[in-house]
Amino acid sequence: MPATAVTRRLAGLARAARWATRPARYATRRAARGYRDAVVKARWFVVAGWLLLTVVVSMFLPTAGGGGGADIGNLLPEDSPAAAVQDRSLELFDVPVLSQVSVVVHDPDGLSILTQADVALWAATHTQAYLDGNVPPGRGQIVAAVPLPTSTPETAVTYLYVSGYTSLERTRDLAREYASHFHNQSSVQTYVTGVVPAQVAQADYLEARLHLFEVATLVLIATVVGLTFRSVVAPFVVLLAAGLGYLVAIRSLGVLAAALGFALPDQLQPLIAALLIGVVTDYCVLFFAGLRQQLDRGLPRLEATRRAVRTNAPIIAVAGITVAAGTAALLAADFQLFQAFGPALSLTVVIGVLVSLTLVPALMAILGERLFGLGTLHPSRRPPSRRGNRWLLRIVVDRRGATVATLLATGVLVLAAAPLLQMRLDLSFTSGLPSDDPVSRGAAVLEDSGIRGVIAPTEVIVEGDAVIAQRPALERLQAAIEAQPGVAEVLGPAQNPLPEGYGVVFSPEGDAARFVVILDSDPLAAPAISDLRGLTAQLDTLAAEAGLQDAEVAVTGQTAIAGELAAITRENLRITLTAVLLVELLILIVYLRALCAPLVLMACSALGVAAALGLSVLLFQVVLGDPGLAFYVPFATAVLLLALGSDYNVFAVGSIWEAAARHPLSKAIMLAMPSTSRAISAAGLILAATFGMVAIIPLQTFRQVAFTMAAGLLIDTFLIRPVLTPAVLTLLGRAASWPSRRVRTESVPVDELRRTGAAGARSGGPEVVRDESLENEIREDAARDEEARESSSREGQPAGSEVGGR
Fold it and tell me: Which pTM value belongs to this model?
């Protein structure tokens, strides 16, 4: 079928769809009119309702959080190979060697014989006490202490095991009490390290700095809003709206999580705070800009509020739906931890949108012109700013300029995204701690001793009928494993002079043997995961070369689990990003009633996200030397940036589409972009600053989140929206709105484009794109100002200066 026939058929379908949806559109317009009247007329009731709701949820609902877990193995799916081998190990051997907490005893000058004996006796005392029944039953008790022999004379490591259902904090405290036994020796240093102490330390830092982050973010928001609108009242309105919304959200999410059956990890709290405060502030900025535009036209307070709500509420509603739907797409992941992010972030956005669409307009109706001053009853007649990026727009609305701009912007983004190919995923709880933290210092001692991986060793299990009879072959395999890259030392049959049935190296039945592999790097970091992956790939070959017969080799341990989590994360990242892109694309297609433009715009947004992640890899992995990005950082930030990028697409491109109903594409861009640029730039800066404040929490994970989000939002605000978006729309031309015919292209004189851009810049808000009378009024004002400037210039010239060369 010819392309023209396809286009005509699609256009006919679009007309039929518009006709069929006329009743729904009529009902929607009536509902919108009723909503505007309600929030303005019932403004005091709306404010009182939100205050009452906040008081009720604060009094009767618990604070959200507490969804963290102790064992990273709990994050794995039920069919995890590493978890299955770990369960098999517990069945085969009487003594476990995988522990969540380790006590490090260190003497820089070397441990004395007495200290080494004390380490062994103190461990035996605790284990024997439990075996003799001298330890009280129930949780919160040490049930075993196993000293691990190492080749380092200055360091001894003891694994601690506690009774079931003991809390993380109590486990850490028990380990500290155990370590205090060695404090009577002045030269001996003790450290408590491992997965559990590191998790507790992270939770402590998060709890200690969370309120500082919240307060600092609100102060920053108030300052930026005050400077943007040159007002001391507007910041208080934003603080009230954001504060009430955050209190309702953080209290409601815990109840909703229990009702809907999703977990709410503690790591989500800063993201929830930044997201809600950021989106509420962004939507406040858009509403305030619209209200000031109407007040500057001389409209009364209530009518100005109605018009500002009529102009901006639909955009904010669609933008909020876009962000909420994008974050909800996290449910497409098949990883429970990532699924939990979706409902929490989505519900946060929904609450933020509800606050913005109800409480904020009600406060605008109450305050009116007082919102932009120190209490004056008269509106500010400050003329709209003439500054802007009109010179840049005049470049990108020309096809040649648009081609150059597209190539340059795309080249910059691709270059920034290039380091993403080297991204590593890090699952270490210790590497993200401050360097002066006791847990981190204990890990550093092990690093200096060359046995960093001792806190979470890897188990290599060999199973076969009477495999312990092949002891020479097992010892050769142990030596071969120890020679592999990344392996510090291996404990196994070569160090076991005891009878085979003891249950440490050999199983009591004699059908299994195990090796305890200690890596030389952080066992949960990317380098160790890579080293273990290489070792696992070689194990069958090493076993055959060692002469083992009729035996199977399997691997488990925290590093193996971390490797599986890293692989699952990469797979879920692809699945979820695809889902987010499809959801956002569908919303843009419906909103813009086009196919081509949404596809290109989503490609631009995706490139911006890749650039932000690439810059994060460059900064943290290359410059700062981190082992990798925390495993959920690329996942959460990519989804948020894509959703928020579509949010800005609704603001910016939606205005261009409105203007394109009356103007050729070039004029539509020149009119719409300046009219929305100030609000979008302010909103982007505010949101970037809000997420940037997450870096107040002194954990490397949150600093990675802060940098990635801030970089991505700034790229979107100052490169993609003002440069790449209008440039690609110019290059698409009529095809941008295909299959509809909304967009048309015509040759427009430069002077006309300049006047159109001036009208957009002077408008102060997006209403100019849909109000032709306002556009004409602004054009007349601009023309009068231009004539006045020319007249003043002529009057200021000296006599005879108009005749050149005389």
Answer: 0.84
